[in-house]
UniProtKB/TrEMBL annotation, chain A:
Annotated membrane topology: Multi-pass membrane protein
Family matches, as InterPro entries: MetI-like, MetI-like_sf, UgpAE/MalFG_permease
Highest taxon, organism lineage: Bacteria
Major localisation: membrane
Subcellular location: Cell membrane
Protein name as it appears in the record: Sugar ABC transporter permease
Family classification: Belongs to the binding-protein-dependent transport system permease family.
Keywords, comma-separated and alphabetical: Cell membrane, Membrane, Transmembrane, Transmembrane helix, Transport
Domain ABC transmembrane type-1 residue range list: 91-317
Bilayer-spanning residue ranges: 29-48, 95-116, 123-149, 188-214, 235-258, 296-318
Gene3D superfamilies documented for this protein: MetI-like (1.10.3720.10)
UniProtKB/TrEMBL annotation, chain B:
Pfam family, one: BPD_transp_1
Superkingdom, natural source: Bacteria
Protein name: Carbohydrate ABC transporter permease
Signal sequence interval, chain numbering: none
Family: Belongs to the binding-protein-dependent transport system permease family.
Entry keyword set: Cell membrane, Membrane, Transmembrane, Transmembrane helix, Transport
Subcellular location: Cell membrane
UniProt topology in membrane: Multi-pass membrane protein
Annotated SUPFAM superfamilies: MetI-like
Species per Swiss-Prot/TrEMBL record: Micromonospora thermarum
Ranges of residues in domain ABC transmembrane type-1: 70-261
């Protein structure tokens, strides 16, 4: 993500005859060929295929192997999905989850970025290393550990709640015994823990990017504002935020894209794709296609809807990056 | 006073960020009696490697050990890294060293393609893998991860290639070196650190991936580590000791690699190679 800006073309002005000759040759295209073929076959073709598949009724793996007919159903899969109230529940879950996660990740990440900018040298090194650790941990194992922390018998959180004075626990939550409490059983609590896991994984990227942005802002501006008596709140909104607006824009869009399609963390925390009450679009699409009985066409249609939503967000992102490269 | 508050907040952030990793390692070193005791200890009272021994020597299913899954994962990730590095280096050289008509379009395409939700491609790629007869084989995953890691690898590597001063290649050309020689003797050694950094990103992509490995592989002895871990440890009566030992073995290489890349990215690549 740090390589978004293009290297300046310093030597464009002093063209040698040799370079001018290179311009017309086919070498660059030959060098690009393997890359183009791979992207076309493994990314663009499947993208077209998923749209195509969404117009067929595909309920058998033999249809995929080409041993059986593909019955055309036109927009049938789409009308089935859009007419199903369950789809709208899933869509609401997805949007609310993404919105909550983007907001929390941005707020926490920005606060940590601002904090890192103010800490002493050794403290920064220490805190930044710890933050990197959360970033580097694979989604899979990070989620497994959180699942262990929320284990209903020996988990740390269960122990913490058991350690509360019984009267206080009773008054606050209506129970004093937490051993055996199913932290993942109610959808709301499940989404809260999933949010904790996702925010834990994604705030470091925001923090580091914000810190990098802050380093590029001349510190005189902040000092001048502080001398003029502006509080930290005012300094942030009137100076830091406007200067870093492009950075924040890109970070919000990237986070939105990532949080719309959370899968690994969900899969581990939910222990599979059986619990329909906590479905989000990516999980819904996967479960329709691969849980028996398979409905590949229906799953493909949901995947297309997810892609369309993200396409809009991506459009915003690409325009932002291009604009930044122009400005740079 | 203010310093104190800031440092306190810093410590809280560090605790929140690092605690799960710490807890994973600590749990993996505790004897089962301590793991399942009602009062958790912050450090193992009697540290033990029994869970590691159990993971590394035991059979998860008859005849298949943890090492087999590790090997499957390493094979898939290794092949992905090699292929993606080679193809990305060629493409990055084209983009960073030549002006050609479709250059900008190619760059925009790279940017857009990275935003394709891979989760939406499970179904069509499953179809392709079925058609190619690659279902239930490791190459199905290598192929898939190659496609996923390539756009970012090219995007990242082009920065490293562009950072190598053109003057070096021009000097070599004046000295009579052919293009192939220039590439091999000048560009390649200078881009090598960037290639390492890029490879690490491809490695992490392939090593961590779960959904496709879950979908394309059927036989248990061909599972990659992530699938094996969700399959064998995803049950209710989870044995947390072995799970944390396995998680630690899975996580540590990723963390080490990740921290390596972070440093690489910051350090000046060829500072001092050209004066003036």
């Amino acid at each position: 993500m740090t390589t978004l800006t293009e290297a300046p073309e310093t030597s464009a002005a002093r063209e040698t005859p040799a370079r001018r000759r290179r311009r017309v040759d086919r070498l660059p295209y030959l060098l690009l060929l393997p890359c183009l073929v791979i992207i076309a076959v493994l990314l663009l073709w499947p993208l077209g295929q998923v749209v195509a598949m969404s117009f067929f009724r595909l309920n058998n793996v033999r249809q995929l192997r080409g041993d059986r007919e593909w019955p055309w159903v036109g927009l049938g899969n789409y009308t089935d999905i859009l007419g199903d109230p369950f789809f709208w529940t899933v869509l609401r879950n997805t949007v609310l989850f993404a919105a909550a996660n983007v907001a929390l990740t941005m707020v926490l990440g920005t606060l940590v970025g601002l904090l890192l900018n103010r800490l002493g040298k050794r403290m920064v090194a220490f805190v930044a290393s710890c933050v990197m650790l959360a970033w580097a941990t694979p989604a899979l194992t990070g989620t497994i550990v959180w699942k262990w922390i929320f284990d209903d018998t020996s988990g740390l959180v269960t122990w913490l709640f058991n350690a509360l004075p019984d009267g206080l626990s009773q008054a606050l939550f209506g129970r004093s015994e937490w051993t055996g409490y199913g932290w993942f059983n109610s959808p709301l609590l499940f989404f809260a823990i999933l949010t904790l896991v996702v925010v834990w994984h994604s705030f470091p990227f925001i923090a580091v990017s914000v810190l990098a942005g802050l380093k590029s802002v001349p510190s005189e501006l902040h000092e001048a504002a502080r001398v003029d008596g502006a509080g930290p709140w005012k300094v942030f909104w009137q100076i830091t935020f406007p200067l870093l607006r492009p950075v924040f824009g890109i970070l919000v869009v990237l986070s939105t894209i990532w949080d719309f399609k959370v899968f690994t963390q969900y899969y581990v925390l939910a222990g599979g794709t059986q619990d329909r009450s906590t479905f989000m679009l990516s999980v819904y699409s996967y479960a329709e296609a691969f849980s028996p009985p398979p409905k590949y066409g229906l799953g493909a249609a949901i995947a297309v809807i997810l892609t369309l939503i993200l396409l809009v967000v991506t459009g915003v992102y690409v325009r932002m990056v291009l604009k930044q490269e122009e400005d740079a | 006073m203010k310093r104190l508050a800031l440092n306190g907040a810093g410590l809280l952030v560090a605790l929140f960020a690092a605690f799960p990793v710490y807890w994973m390692i600590v749990t993996s070193l505790k004897p089962s009696s301590e793991i399942f005791s009602s009062t958790p200890r912050p450090l193992p009272g009697e540290p033990t490697l029994e869970h590691y021994r159990q993971i590394l020597t035991g059979n998860l299913i008859p005849g298949v050990t943890f090492a087999d899954f590790f090997l499957n994962s390493a094979l898939v990730a290794g092949a992905t890294v090699l292929l993606s590095g080679l193809v990305a280096l060629l493409a990055a050289t084209a983009v960073a060293r030549f002006r050609f008509t479709l250059r900008t379009s190619f760059l925009i395409m790279l940017l857009v393609v990275q935003m394709i939700p891979l989760e939406a491609l499970v179904i069509p790629l499953f179809l392709m893998i079925q058609r190619l007869g690659l279902y239930n084989t490791l190459p199905s995953l290598i192929l898939t991860y190659l496609g996923f890691s390539l756009p970012f690898a090219v995007w990242m590597l082009r920065g490293f290639v562009a950072a190598v001063p053109k003057e070096l290649e021009e000097a070599a050309a004046i000295d009579g070196a052919s293009r192939a020689q220039t590439f091999r003797r000048i560009l390649f050694p200078l881009v090598a650190p960037g290639l390492v950094a890029t490879s690490i990103f491809s490695f992490i992509t392939a090593w961590n991936e779960l959904i496709f490995a879950l979908t394309f592989i059927n036989d248990q002895d061909r599972y990659t580590l992530p699938v094996a871990m969700t399959f064998f440890f995803g049950r209710d009566d989870t044995a947390w000791g072995p799970v944390m030992a396995a998680s630690t073995i899975f996580t540590l290489p990723v963390i080490v690699f990740f921290l390596l890349v972070q440093r690489r990215m910051v350090s000046g690549l060829v500072a001092g190679a050209v004066k003036g």
